Amino acid sequence: MVMFFFLVVALAVVVAAVTLAVVGGGESAPLPEVAPERLQDPLPADRPVGRADVEDLRFPLAPRGYRMADVDDALGRLAAELAERDARIADLESALAGARAAAADAHHAPRDRGEGPEEER
User: Fold this and answer.
1) In terms of Cα–Cα distance, which of 78, 88, 80 is closest to 54?
2) The predicted structure's pLDDT at residue 121
C-alpha cells in the first residue's frame, strides 16, 4: 500500500513537471539555429606542423561524425607538408650520395703531380 501511494505521488510530480515545462516553456517560436562548431586550434599556418600539433588536433563533432571540411583541410595540410619533407629528404640523400661518390673518387684517383708513396723519400 505504501509503495502504491509512493508511485502515485511520483507520477503526479512527473506529470506536473512536464505540464509546467510545456505550458510555461516561454516563447512558442522554434529555437534559433546554432552556428556550427568550428575547429578551435587548427594546424599552425606560420610554421611547419610538428608531432605535438598533430597529437593535439581535435575535431569538433557534427551530426554525422566530424565536419568533413575541417578534416579535409587538416589532411590536405599534412599531406602537403609530408610531400615537402619527402622531397627535401630525397634532395639531401641525393646530395649525400654525390658527396660520398666524389670523396670516393678523390680517394682512389691517381695523384696529378706524379708523387707516389715510393717517391716521397
Assistant:
1) 78
2) 47
Considering only CA atoms, which of 50, 22, 54, 25 is closest in space to residue 41? 54
pLDDT one-digit tens code per residue, 9-27: 999 999 988 887 777 666 6
Question: CB within 8 A of 81, min separation 6: which ones?
Answer: 48, 49
Largest CA distance in the chain: 123
Q: CA–CA separation, 75 vs 83, rounded Å?
A: 12
- CA 37/CA 67 separation, integer angstroms: 9
DSSP helix, strand, coil percent of the chain (3-state; round to 5): 60, 5, 35
54-84: buried (b, 16+ CB within 10 Å) or exposed (e) per residue? eeebeeeeeeeeebeebeeebeebeeeeeee
Structure confidence by residue, pLDDT tens digits, 63-113: 777 888 888 888 888 988 999 999 999 999 999 999 999 999 888 876 655
Q: Which residues pair with 61 in a beta bridge?
A: 66
